[in-house]
Amino acid sequence: MQKSIYIFLAVAGLGFLGVLIAEYVSDTPTMETLQIEHVATYEMDVGTHRPEILIDGETIYLGVVDHFGEIRHQLHVFDLDFEEQWTSVLSEGDDVYGRGADHRMTIVGDELVMVYQTLVRDENAVLAEGELATGEATAAEQSLILARFNPDDGEEIFWGPIVAHVTDFSEDSFPDHSLVWDEQREELLVNTGTMGPGNEVTIRSVDIETAASSVVYRERIASDEVTSKIGNGMLINENGDLLVFGSDGFPEGDLSIAVLDDTFTTVETSRFEEESTMETFPTGVIEYRGHYFIGYSQCILEGDGFAWENCRPHLKMIDAATFEEVWDIEVDSDKGFGALHPTLAMRGNTLYYAWSSDAGTYSDGVTSPQVRIEIFEID
Q1: Mean pLDDT over residues 92-101, rounded?
Q2: 3-state SS string over the chain?
Q3: Fold topology of 2-378
């Protein structure tokens, strides 16, 4: 195997514009040479977070969280030159289910499908010493919602709870979930976790017409199963296998892949070891020309260990046949906001990498996120 990486940087009118080339030549004569070139960056407004990028034909859909506003989920629609065509509000919350939090989206047929978490706040909640200030830590209940939208104008077609009014978060908790459309079963698969020491991961099969669901996988995280509860990515490969991409620990986790068969039994696992870093939130995954591309967050461990400010967006390419790593690149040297939450989309040979950067501005003493979209060409 031969591998070479060349990096050149320049400044242009569209924010940061760089050229990054990574080339891989396999010892296997039938394997193609893959070359990736970074060609442009597009920046959203400060305050946008948790991007979900999707492409259908010549239309780019970008779902984001409005981090500081009253609108929780908003859809931005662009042409291929990133000229914005229109926007639409996807969720604003209510008094029954609370406000929207984390979300994931996909395209099914001629509809946009979104699954999102809602939280009802506990006004009397007090964080324990050392407890992370997550939304769930100060919530009285949470729900998991399914919504479908017309991709031409963002009009809501359907709304309904998959799981409603959960109060025992050790049984079900819905932050940083993931999803994938199972075309063979014509059902949506949704991966969620639990809060606290339960350490269980759940996959539900969801009917997108009614939001009715059934649990098809529920196991404790383990090295020979799915290794993380939340922040995962899911993909059904060209062979019809379900792949769950995760991270196997905190704060020194490595990326992992669990392969589930058509009975949702784990039949194979792989792990990608790195030293002095934490690899986490492989939320962007696609298959392209015999390879898996994984968008994730890599965090340098220094001093006392983990800090989100030491996390950067990364892109890993692995051979789909052997699960061997081909190359791994830092997408940008700027720090990310939280776990970055990268997502990927492909159109032809163009790869779109969306992630949450740290904009470096402050609101009430908290830094602001800003969604960026990195554009690559693969040849």
Answers
A1: 90
A2: CEEEEEEEEEECCCCEEEEEEEEEECCCCCCCCEEEEEEEEEEEEECEEEEEEEEECCEEEEEEEECCCCCCEEEEEECCCCCEEEEEEEECCECCCEEEEEEEEEEECCEEEEEEEEEEECCCCCCCCCCCCCCHHHEEEEEEEEEEECCCCCCEEEEEEEEEEECCCCCCEEEEEEEEEECCCCEEEEEEECCCCCCEEEEEEECCCCCCEEEEEEEECCCCCCCCCCCCEEEECCCCCEEEEEECCCCCCCEEEEEECCCCCEEEEEEECCCCEEEEEEEEEEEECCEEEEEEEEEECECCECCHHHEEEEEEEEECCCCCEEEEEECCCCCECCCCCCEEEEECCEEEEEEEEEEEEEECCEEEEEEEEEEEEEC
A3: Neuraminidase (2.120.10)
